[in-house]
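Lecture 7, part B: from sequences to assemblies.

Below are the input chains for today's worked example.
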Amino acid sequence: MNRVVVTGAGCVTAIGQDVATFRESLFAGKNGFREIPDVAAGDLRFQRAARIEGFNAESLLTSAQILLSERSSQFALVASQQAIAQAGILQAVSPDEMAIVFGCSAGGRTAEEPATAKLYTTGGRVHPLSVPRFMASSGTSLVSIQHGITGPAYTITTACASATHAIGQAFHMVRSGTVKAAVTGGHEAPLTYGFYKAWDSLRVVSQTQCRPFSADRDGMTLGEGAAVFVLETLESALNRGATIYGEIVGFGMSSDASHITQAQPAGPTAAMRRALQDAGAAPEEVGYINAHGTGTTVNDNVEAEAIRTVFAHNTAKIPVSSTKAMHGHAMGASGAIEVLATLLALREGMLPVTAGVTEADAALGIDLIVGSTRQANPMLALSNSFAFGGLNAVLAFKRYEA
Amino acid sequence: MDNIHGHERAEGQIAEHEIAEHCIALVAAAKQISTEQVTLDSTFEELAVDSLDRVSLSFDIEEKYGIDIPDSRLHTILTVRDMVEGVAEALRAKAEKTRLKEAGEGA
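Predicted structure of the full complex, as structure tokens:
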């Protein structure tokens, strides 16, 4: 089995539209929460979302790409361009030996919702490019077309765990030798009026801002974005002298088989244990957990309980943060954005703060990183994603030392 | 009666000229080439107008003129000139339909 490393990364997020800017915001504890425009006062219980401002598709993509895509796929295209260019992978690996696996949960909402709203109200017709723009797998196809990547290519949808499942699948394919390299991550642009209203009805969105694991937490902050990585074998990366972000060492999945929204601790517990087992690592080796940490009462209770179960007497020694407090909950892209945060934390020996939280909920019994970024040198880190509907995915990363 | 007839003919003449310009502009925009590269005799094949381009172009032109190009006719449009003729036919069909409707209402 091959060892698998990350040699390229790209992102479009509310706290940075490239990795350098994301990194700066991440370690500065800066959030990307912005006012939601064009919604009447009092129409929503919340006023802010982790919206990406100033994303200039016209300057980053060809007009042919823009014509065929909507915002979610455009994020995928731009983040992939960054990751692929940085890794220089197409100069090293034949594109027919490369895979693309993306996570996307909401599909092309920014195109679909206005078109459908118009159809249902004023009537008329729907543009023939609507179907290609709406498809949740459009991002995968457009990235494949741009770079000529002809190996296995598909999109995974598991709600808020989509990107984590995607990266795990890509990891398995590179590890087993099915492909020599993979482009993987997640992309999502769900922030439409209908989406806001639907989440508002669930009453899980914070009326202030997402404060994961805080005693006074009151919900999540919706977001959007993309993060994309290039995975390849360690051997290939070393042979060509590629810069290594970090190593993926384990992937664990599970299903709660319980409830369509309410998480149960057994599922997340099993996913973390399977990731560690896959990595051949003991719980005490973990030095950082990038939590799913949505900021809802239930999620954070359940996740903390799962962490306590897996790490037992070691729980208090393991720093935990949720970077959703900065980049928001970007749904199907969330896991990928958090993987980027986790890789940067491992590589730089700095653990991101759970921004906006002044005091952790003591009842949760975890070592939540609050106040400021924490210096530490973990060797092993987990990135958790626990989706609505009980679909759980956990990735384990190891700091790469030459 | 003469006035109405004269008006319709004038509208038809202007439309033919406009339609040609419009079709050329739409095809050029869809393929991201200059309008000089598109002539009435350009074939969709040589312009690399694929099936998705064809349905997009027909949608745009149908929306612009408020017409309907039947599927059966769409399949026979293979050049820019065919496209212009297809639009002109559809416009005539629309005018005929309107006249019949107005005549019906008048009766």
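Note for the exam: Chain A touches chain B through seven residues (CB under 8 Å). Keep this in mind when comparing with the next example.
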